[in-house]
Amino acid sequence: MPRSWLLVVLTLAAFADGLRRMGAAGSDRIWIETWRTFAYVVFGGLFAILAWRPRQSPGIWELVFPHKTAVVLYGLTFGDVPEAHAAIAVDTVLILLIALRWWLTRGWESWRTVKSSGREFEEPSLKVNDG
Q: How many domains does the chain have?
């Protein structure tokens, strides 16, 4: 398996663990565990897009990297919260992997595909086919 897909596999493993947590959650935790578990699917999808087309996905690198960085920085301010230590460790690894993949795949070039198409800020056409 190419290394680019590692983030997808790790996120799907987190999703599987989230399903386990949802099953064990009490009424005071079920909402947050469900929200978190479904977020893993979103991030798994984003990582899959980046693995598939790292230089043709403008904006995705710029969404996932700051998000994970913010989670770690926020977690460091609340280090005594039971889940913070694990989240900080996992998301720090993700930050390093995202940065490494961005560098190795030249992810910054994703914006060149938008600019070279000549349609950088063109509104999408809403044509109706009556045919």
A: 1
